[in-house]
Write a structure and sequence with these properties.
Elements (H helix, E strand, L loop, with lengths): L2 E5 L5 E5 L4 H10 L7 E4 L5 H12 L3 E5 L2 E5 L21 H10 L1 E5 L12 H9 L3 E5 L2 E5 L7 E3 L5 H11 L5 E5 L5 H12 L3 E3 L5 E5 L8 E3 L4 H13 L3 E5 L7 H10 L2 E4 L3 E5 L9 E3 L10 H8 L5 E6 L9 H6 L3 E5 L2 E5 L7 E3 L3 H13 L5 E4 L1 H7 L3 H7 L3 E4 L1
Parallel strand pairs: 2-14, 3-13, 9-10, 17-18, 21-22
Antiparallel strand pairs: 1-22, 1-23, 3-5, 4-5, 6-8, 7-8, 10-12, 11-12, 14-16, 15-16, 18-20, 19-20
The structure holds ligand EPZ.
Length: about 425
């Protein structure tokens, strides 16, 4: 089984260039299904989830070409075939196929999603939205069956602020008859990225980034070219690694505004941060003050960054409280940090973290961001080698992680 080995202690120094956002890419690729002609995506990250989606679209009959960070998708010959098993189970974001296939063909049979299993990931709000548009939905044999004679615009109030449900509803509503209003919509930058693509394809979507999104359905959508926004979660992870190793790193090719909550919290810790137009320079300090962190929906502190942030909080000189208000039990990485000497207690949806030096150990990543937490922890350990298994999780969300960290002076390698 492949593993990452880290001989920590070196301060990270230099520049890291951030790639396109995973959580945009896994929605933009299926969104291309809605177009009648070729969609070109630029700034695509090199991730296993992207590769799986490329295979999935090919299985539906699309012609997909990849060259470096560009993907060309010709969906003209695409057809809706039942996909109850296979690749759909390899990633959570396969649920976007439901909205895209429903929007284009009025039907979809898709296996229930797989992906990160840190806690149950319901899709009741997605189903509520599809039914509001006039679809019949049933779950048979581990797959969701969705069918609509005609999709008609509707007003949908999401009970839960959900990134996936908001995007899936936009996909299904883009070609519905009439106007759809999504109330209590999520505001993440990746949602804006998807709406930008859809509007470039001829959709009529306004209000994205606020809690009310209006979609006026159109009869057809055409191809376009779109560049994916930078990955704010990847960027936040490198910022945290720079701070945790007391380094000096320029995190480049980002949109600093997307990281405002993380930047503010790191400044409270005592990290020094210089803001540039498309970059943030992160300079570590010897002493960090304990802080309380609340993971919330955007523009709050991102839940996807709470895991690596926990590793940074082990480096403070006091006790911090980290609470995740989005997912109630996203702390499966904590026992692994405790194996490295971390002093962390779990209480409900909070982790109480007492600053303490970490030591090398053999640990296991249980999901994508848990893996990031363990890498950050390993980078702080001054003697010995930390071994991390579950590398396949990390490769889902961080392209070129080993190369990037080694380029910043870390002693890290795959074995
Ligand atoms: C997206 O997941 C991201 N994944 C997650 O990133 C991210 O953690 C999450 O949004 C929150 O920001 C992708 O974009 C592919 P949600 P998603 O629907 O859409 C509940 C990563 O590490 N909920 O916004 O699945 C849900 O249980 C991944 O990159 C329902 O109750 O998240 C959660 O408590 C992990 N019913 C809350 O809403 C539903 O129908 C937010 O979930 C849907 C969600």
């Amino acid at each position: 089984m492949e593993k990452l080995l880290i001989a920590g202690g070196a301060p990270l120094r230099g520049t890291v260039t951030i790639s396109g956002a995973k959580n945009s890419a896994v929605a933009l690729i299926p969104a291309a299904i809605l177009a009648e002609s070729t969609v070109i995506l630029d700034n695509l990250p090199d991730l296993s989830d992207v590769a799986i989606y490329s295979e999935l679209l090919t299985e539906f009959g699309a012609v997909v070409e990849r060259q470096a960070d560009q993907m060309k998708i010709d969906p003209s010959a695409l057809r809706s075939v039942p996909m109850p098993n296979g690749n759909v189970k390899k990633l959570r974001a396969s649920y976007y196929l439901m909205g895209a296939l429903l929007g284009r063909f009025g039907e979809a049979v898709v296996g229930l999603p797989g992906g990160c299993n840190f806690e149950p990931r319901p899709i009741d709000q997605h189903i509520k939205g599809f039914e509001a548009l006039g679809a019949q939905v049933s779950i048979e044999g581990g797959a969701i069956h969705i069918r609509a004679k005609e999709l008609r615009g509707a007003k949908v109030y999401l009970d839960v602020v959900s990134v996936g449900a908001t995007i899936n509803l936009m996909l299904a509503a883009a070609r519905a008859k009439g106007v759809t209003i999504i109330e209590n919509a999520a505001k993440e930058p990746e949602i804006i990225d998807v709406a930008t693509l859809l509007n470039s394809m001829g959709a009529r979507i306004i209000g994205v980034g606020t809690e009310t999104i209006r979609i006026e359905g159109v009869d057809s959508l055409h191809g376009c070219r779109h560049s994916i926004i930078p990955d704010r979660i990847q960027a936040g992870t490198y910022m945290i690694a720079a701070a945790a190793t007391r380094g000096d790193v320029l995190v480049d090719n980002i949109i600093p505004k997307h990281l405002e909550a993380i930047t503010a919290k790191m400044l409270e810790l005592g990290v020094r941060i210089e803001e540039h137009d498309e970059a943030l320079r992160v300079i570590g300090s010897e002493v960090y003050e304990p802080v309380d962190v609340k993971a919330l929906v955007y523009p709050g502190f991102a839940t996807d960054i709470q895991s690596p942030m926990c590793s940074l909080l082990t480096q403070t000189r006091g006790t911090s409280v980290l609470t995740d208000y989005v997912f109630s039990s996203r702390f499966k990485y904590v026992p692994e940090l405790v194996r490295m000497g971390a002093k962390i207690k779990l209480e409900g949806r909070s982790a109480i973290i007492e600053g303490s030096p970490l030591r090398a150990a053999a640990v296991r990543a249980t999901d994508l961001r848990a893996g990031a937490a363990l890498v950050v922890a390993g980078l702080t350990v001054k003697s010995g080698i930390t071994e991390i298994t579950g590398v396949e999780y990390i490769d889902r969300g961080y392209d070129r992680l080993v190369e990037n960290l080694a380029g910043l002076g870390a002693e890290i390698w795959r074995a």
